[in-house]
Automatic annotation (TrEMBL):
Pyruvate binds at residues 47, 206. Homotetramer; dimer of dimers. Belongs to the DapA family. The record marks 46, 109 as: Part of a proton relay during catalysis. GO terms for cellular component: cytosol. This is 4-hydroxy-tetrahydrodipicolinate synthase. It is found in: Cytoplasm. It comes from Sphingobacterium paramultivorum. Its EC number is 4.3.3.7. It catalyses: L-aspartate 4-semialdehyde + pyruvate = (2S,4S)-4-hydroxy-2,3,4,5-tetrahydrodipicolinate + H2O + H(+). It comes from the Bacteria. One of its GO terms (molecular function) is 4-hydroxy-tetrahydrodipicolinate synthase activity. It holds the Pfam family DHDPS.
Length: 292
């Protein structure tokens, strides 16, 4: 899965003022990522507010994204949730044309056991026509995919090819990297730890801040892949404060505000998410001045 090395971005879903999907802004966002050096795109990951989208909207966004990208970059589709049977049906009805993999978040809220997580991904693996990327984000799902479960899945199912890890647990990262089968990838799912994770052997990042600052994120990942950690550290440090500001009042509210400042779409979200406060807007503006 060479397509999954380097910098990927979990695309936001731009909305118009009436909360309809803003396809013009989505097209601008896709072109920005390609022109600024991103290595691949994730369409309708959790950052894309997929939980608030209808089945028809998801299909239209995927169709639009495939046509707009037009083979210029690899594409990953986000299909995940906490109802295994429903996710299996979504995968079966999904048109994989134009995509290289599926990113599937671990079941949230239900807090399944490790065996439940294993059986969930077994069903996803058996249904998927494409390679599968696991997504571990305990801060949002309420449960952790342990290193042992990740390794069990990686060894038992040849089409489970990677994990996007956002647990923040470096002991867990290290165990996965030490014991994983050849070719299985560890991908950072948390912007601020991309550099240290790649120094251990992670393949790259699926970024949120990359929506707004793709060139910096792509350059950071490239420098890390080359082992040039001195230069990478400079970009890492530059991005720390702006990344914190983007998440302090919920994702993707902060990054949508930055995109609005850049002239790409509006900082419009669907409830229960709301735009960032004026206080955070002012802080983001100040930080953008420093970066520019």
């Amino acid at each position: 899965m060479n397509e999954l090395h380097g910098a990927g971005v979990a695309l936001v879903t731009p909305f118009n003022s009436d909360e309809s999907v803003d396809f013009e802004a989505l097209g601008q966002l896709i072109d920005l990522q390609i022109n600024e050096g991103m290595d691949y795109l994730v369409s309708l990951g959790t950052t894309g507010e997929v939980a608030t989208l209808t089945n028809d909207e998801r299909k239209r966004i995927w169709d639009f994204t495939v046509k707009r990208v037009n083979g210029r970059l690899p594409l990953v589709a986000g299909i995940g949730g906490n109802n295994t049977a429903e996710i299996v049906e979504q995968i079966k009805s999904f048109d994989p044309t134009g995509f290289c993999a599926i990113l599937s978040v671990s079941p949230y809220y239900n807090k399944p056991t490790q065996e439940g997580i294993y059986q969930h991904y077994k069903a996803v693996s058996n249904a998927s026509p494409l390679p599968v990327i696991l997504y571990n984000v305990p801060g949002r799902t309420g449960s952790n995919i342990t290193a042992q479960t990740t390794l069990r899945l990686a060894n038992d199912f040849s089409n489970i090819v990677a994990i996007k890890e956002a647990s923040g647990n470096f002991a867990q990262f290290s165990e996965i990297l030490r014991d994983k089968p050849t070719g299985f990838l560890l991908i950072s799912g948390d912007d601020p730890v991309t550099l240290p994770m790649m120094s251990l052997g992670a393949a790259g990042i699926i970024s949120v801040i990359g929506n707004a600052l793709p060139k910096k994120v792509a350059t950071l990942a490239k420098l890390c892949a080359e082992g040039n950690y001195a230069e990478a550290r400079s970009i890492h440090n530059e991005l720390l404060d702006i990344t914190d500001l983007c998440f302090i009042e919920g994702n993707p509210a902060g990054v949508k505000y930055i995109l609005q400042e850049l002239g790409i779409g509006k900082d419009q979200l669907r409830l229960p998410l709301v735009p960032v406060s004026e206080k955070i807007q002012a802080a983001i503006k100040e930080e953008l001045k420093k970066l520019n």
